[in-house]
Amino acid sequence: YKPTLSPPVYTTPPPVYKPTLSPPVYEKSPSYSPPPPYVPKPTYSPPAKPYVPEILKAVDGVILCKNGYETYPIQGAKAKIVCSEPTAYGKSKEEVVYSDPTDAKGYFHVVLTHIKDIAHCRVKLYTSPVETCKNPTNVNKGVTGVPLSMYGYRYYADKNLNLFSVGPFYFTGPKAAPTPPKY
């Protein structure tokens, strides 16, 4: 007996799947366009306050000499204005302004430019150039000081000025009556 061999049957192997890559598709980037111009947002501003000029404050008065029954103005005498402005912690800062020397009629005038609150100011006698009339008296509070808060003032609209008038203040000669001692 002879075996018969059948002819071999060849089958094709199943195809191996290979994905086919399509060429990449690039998206177009957006074309350049300039940013919109800057427009500031409208801001609210309160209405401008009208200009109000600062009212000047000034003090004037007369300094005289009283020797016995004779009274005459002292030329070259000075007054001082002492202002004690309260600061923090209950303390006070003292500011002193001296008048220019008085004229031939004994008149002095002081403009208080940097004093904020005149209510804390007192006007006192300071010096006299007359040797025979150097002792300050407390007539009209020339020694203890006149508080400006007690005085009214005259307002001069044309000069925008509040004028406080004090005195008259008196110096006296060397034979002033001694002040009685305080007990």
From TrEMBL:
Gene Ontology, cellular component aspect: cell periphery
Entry keywords, A to Z: Signal
A matching Pfam family: Pollen_Ole_e_1
Gene Ontology biological-process entries: response to ethylene
Highest taxon in the source lineage: Eukaryota
The keyword Glycoprotein is assigned to this record: no
Protein name as annotated: Proline-rich protein 1
Organism: Noccaea caerulescens
UniProt lineage: Eukaryota, Viridiplantae, Streptophyta, Embryophyta, Tracheophyta
